[in-house]
Design goal:
Order of helices and strands: HHHHHHHH
Number of domains: 1
Number of helices: 8
Structural class: mainly alpha
Largest sheet: none
Length: 196
């Protein structure tokens, strides 16, 4: 397998896991259950656009902000890894998100923080430093294309998985997020100790 393709697939898998569109299906459908199919898809499109613009924005200016405050990649990897680990534990223990705001659902909470929250932003920035802009941008485009497909057929997928299937998927995603978090921390600590 060509190395660039391997990097692309690794970045795509990491982003797809952290955005967790299949695991978030119950929240997406639950928040829009009283809407028509047309209105629901409109809100889903808004959520995808919001998440896509947000993650690309952080991808473009995130490293400038880190440089401004003198934060190194290893600092960010450790902090991001700890943050991802907390998110994974919260998903595993709570398995749900409490909705308090009544703004446009496509922007908040569907676009952010359900699709793109601190975990996705952290993952994208770390992947950027590991694989570079072309690979990560292509992975983001592919990831959000998959998310669009999932949300477009949300009713069919949720009916197929059922409530228990979606819950199991969420728990598996939490474990994978935790594993990615540990990997980030391990890589940063080894780099600090061995100056790599």
């Amino acid at each position: 397998m060509p190395i660039e393709l391997e990097h692309f697939l690794k970045a795509l898998v990491a982003l797809f896991i952290i955005t967790d569109a299949p695991g978030n299906l119950p929240f997406f459908l639950g928040l829009t259950k009283d809407l028509s199919l047309k209105d629901r898809r409109k809100i889903f499109a808004t959520a995808i656009s919001t998440g896509f613009i947000l993650i690309l924005g952080f991808l473009l200016v995130g490293m400038l902000i880190l440089d401004l405050f003198g934060v190194t990649l290893n600092d960010f990897k450790i902090a991001g890894g700890i943050l991802l680990l907390i998110i994974a534990i919260e998903i595993m223990l709570r398995g749900k998100i409490n909705i308090e705001h009544k703004e446009d659902m496509g922007v908040v909470p569907l676009g952010c923080p359900l699709l793109v929250g601190p975990g996705a932003i952290t993952t994208a920035l770390v992947l950027l430093q590991v694989y570079g802009y072309p690979v990560v941008v292509c992975a983001i485009i592919a990831c959000f294309s998959l998310i669009w497909l999932i949300l477009h057929f949300a009713d069919n997928i949720y009916n197929f998985l059922g409530k228990n299937g979606s819950l199991i998927l969420t728990k598996i995603a939490a474990i994978l997020i935790a594993a990615i978090a540990v990997q980030f921390i391990r890589q940063a600590v080894m780099a600090l100790f061995f100056n790599t």
